[in-house]
Amino acid sequence: MNTWTIMIYELRRLFRSRSLLINMFLLPIVLIFLLGTSLSGVVGVKAASKINPVRVAVVNLSGEGKGPTAMIAAFLKSPEVQNVIAPQEAGSREAAEKGLRTGKYGYAVIVPTGFDSEVQSGGQARLELILGKSHNDNLVAATVFDNFLSRINYKQATAATLGPQALQAAATVPGDRETVKMGDLSNGGRTYSASQFYAASMLVMFLLYSGITVTTSLFSEKDNHTLFRINSMPVKGSELFIGKMLGVGIVSIIQCLAIVLLTGWLFGVYWGNRPGLLMLFCLLMIIASMTLSIVVCMFSKTAASASSIISVITVCMTFLSGGMAPLPDSWVNTIGAFTINHWVLQSMIRMMLHSSLPQLLPNLWIIAIICLVLFGAAIVSYRKVGYHG
User: Fold this and answer.
1) How many angstroms separate the CA atoms of 283 and 281, rounded?
2) How far apart are CA 149 and CA 179, in angstroms?
3) What stretch of H or E contains 60?
4) Strand 107-111 to strand 128-131: parallel, antiparallel, or no bridges (unpaired)?
5) How far is CA 188 from the centre of its chain?
6) What is the phi/psi pair of residue 89, to 5°?
7) What's the average model confidence in pLDDT over 165-184?
8) For the range 133-138, what are the long-range contacts, defined as Cβ-Cβ under 8 Å and sequence gap of 24 or more?
9) d(Cα 386, Cα 380) in Å, to the nearest integer?
């Protein structure tokens, strides 16, 4: 009963503090808005690039009639190729090279003499490819025509092995697959924005900052000289201590829910498809923050020194985990892995990208182990030092 009474009193005291309401509820929302807006082009996974059709000069030297050969014409008319290649007939090699220099064409293909007849007789398919000025255009066009030649030569090799009856099938180029497709290999096609990244980063940072609230709560009774009077009452020291921690913990949970709901409502931040797991990570982060702050408070003489230590730890962990500014992956995954923020922040980002549960479980186990270690350290420090005036 004493524990719940102290918890309710602590909640009333905390919610009467205007500075607490501003620092815990208003400030993170403002920071997420400012950082997400100003760094929208710097932070976040960019969406897959859109392929613009490449203007390709086609020069026919085969002498098999005007325009591209039958095989090249059939290939260029396929829907998959038309999405990325815009063929333009050039009269000669010189005209194609001049067009490449002036930017009229982005790529050039020289069809050698007797291309169709050479392929149909079982010979190797060859084209002369001339690069243009744009690296992206060269990459797209080279992928298309290399794929074209590879298919034909593969079928030619198959025909040579199986016999002449396979040559006719080898000479046709089916368009049953996309020739070039831009995509994301790691995130299943999903991306996250700067607002999402900084929403997760600031949520983790302010949950870690809740340790300062623990410091204020514990030292307020000492500074106001009320701890002596409370200890003279029929109240155990453990009941007082647990009641205060429960009060701060509930406020931190409300802060977490407010940040998640308000950022989703105001800024459209998508937190992923696992809300239960998200809340579990936040709860573990709150436990880690509170137990870490308890250890610091037990061995600090003043509230100012304890708050300073917690602030330095919070800022350093947030920076090393890459939560303030983009850092190299090698840095974040090595030095940043020694911070609490790293494991929770990476998990939140992965949930936003719909990562599978096996990818999230290692982070969950690690943060759970960290909480157990800090919880044990808090119990040992409390028993050794105690909470008294």
Assistant:
1) 5
2) 12
3) strand 54-60
4) antiparallel
5) 12
6) -75, 130
7) 49
8) 133/100, 133/103, 133/106, 134/106, 137/54, 137/106, 137/107, 138/106, 138/107
9) 9
